[in-house]
Amino acid sequence: MVRKLEILCVYLTGLFQGLVLVTVPAASLVFTSASGFGFSNSEYGSLFIPQVLVAIVAALSGPASAQRWGIRAVFRIGLLFNLLAMALIASSQCVRHEHQAAYFLVILGTGFVGAGFGATLPTINVYAADFFPGNTASALTVLHTLLGLGTALAPFLVAVLVRKIGWWVLPVAVAGALVILGASALVLPFRIKRPVPTGTLTSAGSKAPWRARVRLFILAVFLYGYCETLFANWAIIFLNKEKGVGLQEAGYALAAFWIMVSIGRLLVSIISVWVAARWVYMVLPVLITLSLAGVSTASSPLTGILLFAAAGLSCSAFFPLTFNFGQKIHAPLAEKISGWLMASYMLGYGVAAYGMGKAVEMTHISLKAWYAGSTIVAAGIVFLSFMLMSEP
Fold it and tell me: How distant is the alpha carbon of residue 43 from its chain centre?
C-alpha cells in the first residue's frame, strides 16, 4: 500500500507540475492586456528569464544535491518551490493595478516555477524508472503524458475561469493540491532501490565516444525547446492580437496543442510495439517543421485550433524519447545526462520565451513571420535526429 501511494504521489506530481509550468503562458493575455496587468510583449517575455536560469541551475545541481541530502529531500524542495510559485503568481492579482509590484510578484513566481521544475522533474523521472525497472520506457511515457495533460488543462481552465470567476483561481487550486502532495512527501519513505551515480560527464575521459553523442542530443533538445515554446508561450498572443481570434478560442487552441502532446505520447507508446522508436524520433522533427509553416497560415478560430493541435501531435514524444535515448548512451551517468538535457531544453525555452518578445518589439517582424522562419530551426532538429539514429 505504501508503494502504491508513492506511485500515486509521483504521477500526480507530474500532472500538477504541468499545470504549474503553463499557468503564466495560459494567462498571457491577462498579463499583456490593458484591462489586465498591462505588461508589454518584452515585459511578458522577460518573465521567463529567471524561470529558465533557475531551472538550469536546479537541473544541473540536482544530482549533487541528491547525493548530499538524498533524492527524497530534493523532491520535497521541488514541491515547496512549486507551491511558492503558485502563491506568488496568484497574489499578483491583488496588486494588478500597481504595475511594478505586480511585475515583481509574477517574475519572482516564475523564478520559483523554474526552481520547482528543475528540481522536481528529474527526481520524479528517477522515481518512475525505479518503480517499474522492467519497463522504464512505459513508466516515463505515462509520467510525461500526465505532465502533458497538466499543461493541456491550464489554458482550458484559464479560458473558462476568466469568464466565470478569475484566472487566479487556477494557481490557488494548484497550490492547495501541492500542499497535499507535499504532506505526502513528508510522510511516505520514497526510498529508491538503486543509488544516484556520483560520476560526472567528464569522468570517463574527454575522448569517450559517448560524449559526442550526448552533445548532439543536448543540441537537439535545445532546438526542440525553442520550437515547442514558440508554439506554447506565444499561441494565445499570436492568435488574438495578430489573427483577431477571441480569447476563449485562442485558449482552446493552446489547450488543443497540449492535449495532442499527451495523446501523441500515448499513441507512440502503443505503436512502438510495431514501429521502432528510432523511426518515430526521425519523423517527428519533420512534422514539427511542417507544423511551424502551417501555424503561420492560421486565419480563423477553427484553423488555429486544428493547426496547433497538429503541432502538439508533432511535438508529442520527441522530448521523452530524447531522454530515453540520451540516458541509454552511458547508463552509469543516466541521471546526470538527464540533468544536462533538461538544462538544454530550458535554455531553448528561454530563447523562445524571452527572445521572441524582444525580437518582435525590436524588429517589428510579426509572430506569423517568426513561426514561418523558425522552420529553419526545425530543419536542424531533422538533421540531428537522422545523425543520432543512424549511429550504432
Answer: 21
Report whether 63 contacts 339 (CB < 8 A): yes
- DSSP sequence for 302-351: HHHHHHHHHHHHHHTTHHHHHHHHHHHHSGGGHHHHHHHHHHHHHHHHHH
Residue 100 has pLDDT above 80, yes or no: yes
The one-letter amino acid at 178: L
CATH dotted code for 2-196+203-390: 1.20.1250.20
- Length reported for the chain: 392
Q: How far apart are CA 18 and CA 104, in angstroms?
A: 23
pLDDT tens readout for residues 157-196: 887 887 778 999 999 999 999 999 999 999 999 887 655 4
> 315-357: per-residue pLDDT in tens?
998 988 888 788 777 666 666 787 788 889 989 988 998 888 8
Buried b (16+ CB within 10 A) or exposed e, 27-37: bbbbbbeeebb
Per-domain residue ranges for the chain? 2-196+203-390
Q: What is the dihedral of CA 312, 246, 25, 338, to 10 degrees?
A: 0
Distance of CA 160 to the CA centre of its chain: 22
CA distance 245 to 229: 20
Q: What are the respective helix, strand and coil percentages of the chain, to the nearest 5?
A: 85, 0, 15
C-alpha cell at 336: 546526470
Question: In 3D, which of 365, 360, 249 has the Cα closest to residue 308?
Answer: 249
- Cell, residue 296: 503561420
User: Exposed, middle or buried by CB within 10 Å (0-12, 13-18, 19+), for 38?
Assistant: middle
Q: Which three cell numbers stand for residue 76?
A: 520535497
- Name the pTM for this structure: 0.80
